[in-house]
Design the sequence.
């Protein structure tokens, strides 16, 4: 692994470094590794640890430099190549990333990490989809028990439109590690991308919420959750608007059967809303409740509910006031839609 | 000192204003000749070109002292390690043998009453003694327990936290008969959690003082060993020391690092540390009577669930950013060794809702920096005024925003057992959830 035998002190420091990296105390690990690298610049392991610390601190530039120093010292060791590949991917240098990952595969063809890295690197490359698929399948063959491998395989499959395969991989990752926040997030994203009904949307929201509960630092899952709820509100609002409009068309007819049509039509969006809410877990239901009670959205929801009531009233009201109710219903529905649109736009800005 | 020589040097400096060595030489000679004002002006000119110039900083700190009424250690450079040289006979804010800081300040106040504005504008309430308050200090102890004279009375404000500590820890420990009567166990530890820089360490020290117990303050660096297995041995040694020194409070700072979720770990060494901590807290092989374990963390959600089970860290107390009264105390503490005039800390405390102790310290640093730069620009040292602090507040923001975002996710979606109800209530009170 190393070009020089480690002295006792360096070996001991590496034990401590390993623990610090394990605890993701990257700054402390970096502080410890820098003088060690200065003292033993011929030690490729220390350069690799340094690169790892920089990656942990989201500094891919210095990470790439450190990893390249390690490659220069021991070009026949796969780890430095893998670190170069990772840093290059973060930097958007996909050619270099794929090239370094290929080299690591060449050096250690039986190591799942090398194939997983190649899948990750090629997956980001504009022309790398075939290579990514092959690499992820090879990694899966070598280590089907590794959640990380399942996630890489799922991500590659999802990117290539093989959603069922991706879902299977994410579910396998969750079976191996039920607390895996990334798997929860990716599965929820997959559900959100499908054109699903209310229960599918609710499952996506639940997935994001579970990911957040498992890893509360994952703000990307918060964004996913906000996005899902926005999608639900927008769909519900459009649904109400469209059925309200159709209902009003029927509301003007004198036949008793035609008067029932608006009632039936208005039941559709209400069923959509009920289906979504029913599929949510209690924490999310409470969260949605709080969201709907917030200033602008509360007004929009109130207007939306009023428009439903007005449409229904117009359907059963006698002719002289029917038109007035219908106009009022149209105005409130429009105001609700506009209010919701403005509020959701703001929500979007807040959640990024 | 020859006036001719000084004139020659002045001429030379005029000819080469950017020659800092020459200018500093002139400043030193002027200083020795008693021409303090001109010496300071030249030193300030040097600082304008080289803000970190040690010689200029030292000269200003030496010479500015009489003009500035008392030696302001932070006026020149807000660095804890810089000890200004004070000419003999010059009044100092502290450090005189046998005379307390308070005594010096009182003497100065009476000596210069009416000459300079008072340091603080007194507001409605006033706690008598903030001097023992040590919000900023971090205890660094090896495995040697220390005595602390702090008590919860030294913690300004934060009444809710104190009440919870009283109920969760102090009342049972002070009433062992009642505890026995009701069959309650005294086992278990207490986990203090909250945003960074809000005084968890200080509260832990105060709690140890309140229990009249020794304190073993332990951080990750104290435990992590260089060799495999050494961390476990260190933990064992810590608990051994505590047992020998009972009553003793073990304060485990950053418990999320020492007791991180084992599922997040890849290294067996790290997992071994958590396992050892569990063993020691359970006290299976030995008696933990009189050993109280306090943990503090910014990320309780990263703590291994096994550590949160009954008998371990089964009680959690949320330590929030300081309330108004506590902020007032922190501000007074941070400003007490600085040259200030007519500062209304209570008004500042009202302006700084949501600021952590560390944020308040930063505000004071920024205000000092403003006054320092102003002094350098004008060549005349001046006091830190209220407007400096207000401007510093305006330019700063509470640093706990990121923590609150994460905390919000936990309180809303990982609170099935109600552990974070108080956090959720706080977030709702601030309309964050």
Sequence:
């Amino acid at each position: 692994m190393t070009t020089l035998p480690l002295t006792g002190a360096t070996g001991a420091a590496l034990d401590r470094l390993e623990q610090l990296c394990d605890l993701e105390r990257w700054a402390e690990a970096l502080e410890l590794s820098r003088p060690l690298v200065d003292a033993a610049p011929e030690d490729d392991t220390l350069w690799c640890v340094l690169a790892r610390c920089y990656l942990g601190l989201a500094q891919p530039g210095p990470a790439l430099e450190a990893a390249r120093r390690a490659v220069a010292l021991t070009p026949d060791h796969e780890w430095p190549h893998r670190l170069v590949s990772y840093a290059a991917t973060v930097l958007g240098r996909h050619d270099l990333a794929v090239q370094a990952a290929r080299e690591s595969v060449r050096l250690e063809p039986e190591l799942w990490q090398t194939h997983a890295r190649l899948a990750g690197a090629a997956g980001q490359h504009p022309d790398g989809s075939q290579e990514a698929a092959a690499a992820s399948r090879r990694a899966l063959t070598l280590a089907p028990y590794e959640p990380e491998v399942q996630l890489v395989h799922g991500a590659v499959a999802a990117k290539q439109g093989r959603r069922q395969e991706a879902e299977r991989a994410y579910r396998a990752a969750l079976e191996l590690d039920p607390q895996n926040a990334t798997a929860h997030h990716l599965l929820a994203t997959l559900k959100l991308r499908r054109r699903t009904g209310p229960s599918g949307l609710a499952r996506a929201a639940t997935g994001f919420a579970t990911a957040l509960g498992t890893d509360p630092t994952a703000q990307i899952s918060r964004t996913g959750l906000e996005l899902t709820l926005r999608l639900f509100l927008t769909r519900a609002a459009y649904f109400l608007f469209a059925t309200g409009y159709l209902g009003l068309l029927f509301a003007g007819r004198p036949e008793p059967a035609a008067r029932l049509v608006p009632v039936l039509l208005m039941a559709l969006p209400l069923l959509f809303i009920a289906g979504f809410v029913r599929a949510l877990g209690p924490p999310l239901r409470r969260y949605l409740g709080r969201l709907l009670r917030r200033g602008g959205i509360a007004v929009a929801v109130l207007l939306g509910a009023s428009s439903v009531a007005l449409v229904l009233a117009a359907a059963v009201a006698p002719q002289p006031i029917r038109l007035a109710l219908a106009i009022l219903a149209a105005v409130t529905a429009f105001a609700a839609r506009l209010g919701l649109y403005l509020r959701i736009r703001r929500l979007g800005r807040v959640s990024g | 000192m020859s006036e001719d020589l000084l004139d020659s040097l002045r001429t030379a400096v005029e000819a080469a204003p950017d020659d800092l060595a020459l200018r500093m030489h002139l400043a030193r000679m002027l200083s020795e000749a008693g021409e303090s004002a001109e010496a300071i002006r030249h030193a300030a000119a040097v600082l304008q070109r080289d803000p970190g110039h040690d010689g200029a900083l030292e000269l200003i700190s030496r010479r500015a002292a009489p003009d500035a009424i008392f030696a302001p250690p932070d006026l020149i450079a807000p660095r804890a390690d810089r000890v200004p040289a004070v000419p003999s006979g010059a009044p100092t804010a502290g450090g005189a043998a046998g005379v307390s800081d308070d005594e010096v300040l009182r003497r100065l106040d009476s000596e210069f009453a009416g000459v300079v504005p008072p340091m603080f504008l007194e507001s409605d309430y006033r706690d008598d003694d903030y001097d023992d308050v040590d919000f900023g200090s971090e205890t660094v102890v090896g495995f040697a327990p220390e005595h602390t004279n702090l008590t919860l009375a030294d913690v300004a404000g934060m009444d809710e936290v104190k009440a919870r500590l009283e109920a969760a820890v102090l009342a049972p420990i002070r009433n062992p008969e009642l505890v026995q009567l009701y069959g309650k166990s005294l086992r278990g530890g207490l986990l203090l959690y909250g945003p960074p820089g809000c005084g968890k360490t200080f509260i832990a020290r105060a709690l140890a003082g309140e229990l009249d117990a020794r304190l073993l303050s332990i951080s990750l660096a104290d435990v992590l060993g260089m060799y495999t297995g050494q961390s476990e041995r260190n933990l064992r040694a810590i608990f051994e020391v505590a047992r020998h020194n009972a009553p003793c409070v073990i304060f485990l700072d950053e418990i999320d690092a020492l007791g991180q979720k084992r599922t997040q770990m890849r290294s067996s060494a790290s997992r071994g540390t958590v396992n050892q901590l569990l063993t020691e807290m359970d006290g299976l092989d030995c008696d933990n009577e009189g050993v109280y374990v306090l943990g503090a963390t910014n990320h309780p959600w990263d703590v291994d669930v096994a550590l949160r089970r009954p008998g371990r860290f089964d009680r959690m107390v949320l330590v929030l950013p300081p309330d108004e009264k506590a902020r007032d105390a922190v501000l007074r503490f941070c400003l007490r060794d600085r040259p200030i005039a007519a500062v209304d800390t209570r008004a500042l405390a009202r302006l700084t809702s949501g600021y952590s102790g560390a944020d308040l310290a930063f505000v004071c640093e920024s205000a000092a920096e403003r006054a320092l730069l102003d002094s350098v620009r004008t060549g005349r040292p001046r006091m830190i005024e209220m407007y400096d602090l207000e401007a510093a507040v305006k330019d700063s923001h509470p640093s706990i925003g990121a923590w609150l975002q994460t905390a919000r996710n936990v309180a809303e979606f990982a609170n099935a057992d109600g552990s974070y109800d108080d956090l959720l209530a706080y977030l709702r009170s601030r309309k964050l959830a």
